[in-house]
Design a protein that fits this description.
Blueprint (H helix, E strand, L loop, with lengths): L10 H7 L18 H30 L9 H6 L20 H15 L3 H11 L1 H17 L1 H7 L1 H15 L2 H12 L5 H9 L1 H20 L2 H21 L12 H11 L2 H7 L4 H5 L2 H30 L5 H31 L5 H20 L8 H5 L12
Helix pairs in contact: 2-6, 2-10, 2-11, 2-12, 2-16, 4-8, 5-6, 5-9, 6-8, 6-9, 6-12, 7-8, 10-17, 11-12, 11-17, 16-17, 16-18, 17-18
Length: about 400
């Protein structure tokens, strides 16, 4: 078997399991309704819907929270951009907080101060306490803190920043926990489509949260944004803890055919973890690892800049009203979700048919994703006006570092 096509960790494992990984369609168990691994994909999908809805709702709610007439910094741009090609804002919402643009930037970025610190520990904790519990309680932590956001904001600026940092700490474990969970549940030739579908919840969560947050702010006030999405997070947590298990063999509703299929194609991952020792020195000095990490940093730079700043940019610079703001800001993520799901399906098809090696598929897909973000952002995300271009000190660019 061609080693490039083998999606395992090392040559020894590849030799031991050759002939069992690339199962035919006849080996795949048939299911009357939905298989256990597909049910897991669905619940993980809704988990990431909650993760990103809880993360981005503040980006829209902050617009309604702030008294823009009292702030400084964007006033000149707002005046310069009131031209026919832009939508005139019709909002009559006056926020209760007099936070300037610098304070708003601190609030929006504070989430990531916590988020960055639990990424690596999250993977280690998933192996110790179980990926199911870590993923579930990580989202529960963010859910409860989201529901406390109105209280924290009205208490003090510092309390709100601390609340957002703690939310980031909770959400930082979600992706590592999901990786650990799929190591037990995803057959090698289904990994791309199962993982891309489940992680696609992040785009759908953004698509849902941005427009709904704008509508909620206008209808019932900005605190309703945090209460509603928090309530959905609590409902998801109950379902997750009731229906998910860390290992296929512990699942009470899995069919014997599916269990045999997963054991045949994946093996006992828990035993592999006990016997295998990670060569951390070689990993950290590996050029492929450094290349993947660099690509991921560059991608996230552009992605999170847009995710965090786009609603404020649309409102303050392009003068969209609050309801339009959410809908227009959500459009890139709706397209992204379609691409993510289709790309995952196509990746597994190409690998299964041996048109390209696993390594080639990963490189091509990653390159297309990163370069498309760069082309989308470009020099400016949106065409502003000549008046704004002349205001060199007030330019706002949403661009990645590539």
């Amino acid at each position: 078997m061609d080693k490039d096509h083998e999606p395992l960790l090392n040559d020894k494992d590849c030799e031991a399991k050759s002939g069992t990984l690339y199962s035919t369609a006849a080996d795949t168990p048939k299911c009357n309704f939905i298989s256990a691994r597909h049910a897991l994909a669905l619940l993980t999908f809704f988990g990431f819907v909650n993760v990103y809805a809880l993360r981005v709702n503040l980006s829209v709610a902050l617009i309604a929270m702030v008294n823009n007439t009292a702030g400084e910094g964007l006033d000149n741009i707002t005046k310069e951009c009131k031209e026919p090609l832009l939508n005139e804002s019709h909002d009559d919402i006056t926020g209760e907080f007099n936070w300037d643009s610098e304070s708003q930037g601190i609030i929006l970025s504070s989430f990531f101060y916590g988020y960055i610190f639990t990424q690596i520990p999250g993977g280690m904790l998933a192996e110790r306490i179980g990926a199911k519990k870590l993923f579930g309680f990580g989202i529960l932590c963010t859910t409860l803190l989201t529901m406390l956001t109105p209280l924290a904001a009205r208490t003090s600026f510092t309390a709100l920043v601390v609340c957002r940092v703690l939310e980031g700490l909770g959400e930082g474990v979600t992706f590592p926990a999901a990786h650990a969970l799929w190591a037990n549940w995803a057959p090698p030739l289904e990994r791309s489509k199962l993982i891309s579908f489940s992680y696609g919840g992040s785009q759908i969560g953004t698509v849902i949260a941005l427009p709904i947050s704008g509508l909620l702010c206008q209808a019932w006030g900005w605190p309703s944004v945090f209460y509603l999405f928090g309530a959905f997070g609590l409902l998801w947590f109950v379902l997750w803890m009731s229906l998910v298990t860390d290992l296929p063999k512990d699942h009470p509703r899995i069919s014997s055919e599916e269990l045999h299929y997963l054991q045949k194609t994946i093996g006992d991952v828990s035993k592999m973890r006990k016997t295998a020792k990670a060569p951390w020195g070689r990993i950290l000095m590996s050029l492929p690892v450094l290349g993947i990490a660099t690509a991921h940093v560059c991608n996230n730079w552009g992605f999170y800049t847009l995710l965090t700043c786009l609603p404020t940019y649309m409102k303050q610079v392009l003068n969209f009203d609050l309801s339009q703001d959410g809908f227009v800001s959500a459009l890139p993520y709706l397209v992204s979700w379609f691409v993510v799901v289709l790309a995952g399906q196509l990746a597994d098809h190409v690998r299964n048919k041996r048109y390209l090696s696993t390594v080639a598929v990963r490189k091509i897909w990653q390159s297309i994703g990163n370069q498309s973000l760069r082309l989308y952002s470009g020099e400016r995300t949106f065409p502003v006006t000549d008046a704004t271009r002349r205001s060199h000190s007030k330019r706002i660019y949403l661009r990645p570092i590539l």
